[in-house]
């Protein structure tokens, strides 16, 4: 009965793609806790304050039943104010929110034009959509326009949806949002921006890279709470009409137990804490600059300019060997392999956070240089 599963796992092992859970070990160069807030005393206090005023752990049902707590609505109002959108809606995770958006909002006759490196959650949503889906080369604004024109030329009459990340999670590069919104405006398209790795780190008060576009009728943004915000869940910011549509048509919202009211209360406090975290953002930016300068000395490695630093080595075996060597030096760095990244681009994904200091970054890069030199060509 289990033989097909064992065979599949053995095939993954042969390809150096078998995954296993591993504990935290060593200095943090792998988490998305960019501002070092996940274990902060400020969050502990926010959670204790919420508990003291009687906020429950569990919601007890879906939002459309008895699960709609005042803390959910307070968070959504605060998030709309914070990010500058007309409305917001809270989901239990970024993955479910991203999947739900693409499964629900694009309609039959529409087209989703997405960056080739968009997150797996978006791909899961597109498997459920009624719209046509078109992939375009990574970070190429002209390719989006060409795809929309080609779709129109074939008789496409619905609404285009341009789907991108503002900061890509595996390459650390940044989308040209000014160019993309211009494409969206020219073609009466929606622009859906996943701000997962930008929220908290970029923009005034940590509002993200798309903050200047929030509140527009044709812009939807996704702000996950599990990265720089240090918690979990996700906030979708969008026009009120689209929010109402999700409440009425989104199966992942309608049929899911509501997120914890205690979580909602803590996320609301987190928005206020992050808004005042300019010193943390400045310190992180300084460490990104420092790491970038040090990385320039390494063969074949160019800094991304963000807190996400990919070290691409090509083969799965090399990535695993390099990660193991770095872990032996005391650095928690993991190998990223296909299908998370394209074939032939296995890598280390180094994340810079305030959980490490400059001397530790310097030591990590020195050991990385040594281990890269030992890798076979």
Poorly predicted runs of 5 or more residues? none
Question: Do you know the CATH topology of the largest domain?
Answer: Aspartate Aminotransferase, domain 2
Q: Any idea what the CATH architecture of the largest domain is?
A: 3-Layer(aba) Sandwich
Class by alpha and beta content: alpha/beta
Q: Average the pLDDT over all residues and give the rounded result.
A: 96
Rg result: 21 Å
Strand content: 5-15%
> Quick one: overall form?
globular
Number of domains: 2
Spatial strand arrangement across the major sheet: 2-8-7-6-5-3-4
CATH class of the largest domain: Alpha Beta
The helix fraction, in percent, is 40-55%
Order of helical and strand elements: HEHHEHEHEHEHEEEHHHHEHEEEH
Give the end-to-end Cα distance, rounded to a whole number of Å: 42 Å
- Number of helical stretches of at least 4 residues: 13
The count of DSSP E runs of length 2 or more, i.e. the number of strands, is 12
Name the CATH superfamily classification of the largest domain: Type I PLP-dependent aspartate aminotransferase-like (Major domain)
Main sheet attributes: strand count, strand direction, barrel closure: 7 strands, mixed
Overview of this protein structure:
With 377 residues, the protein is an alpha/beta fold. The protein has two domains: 110 residues, Alpha-Beta Complex (Aspartate Aminotransferase, domain 1); 221 residues, Type I PLP-dependent aspartate aminotransferase-like (Major domain) (Aspartate Aminotransferase, domain 2). It is built from 13 helices and twelve strands. A seven-stranded mixed sheet has the order 2-8-7-6-5-3-4, with helices on both faces. Strands 9-12-11 form a three-stranded antiparallel sheet. Strand 5, helix 7 and strand 6 form a beta-alpha-beta unit. It is globular, with a radius of gyration of 21 Å.
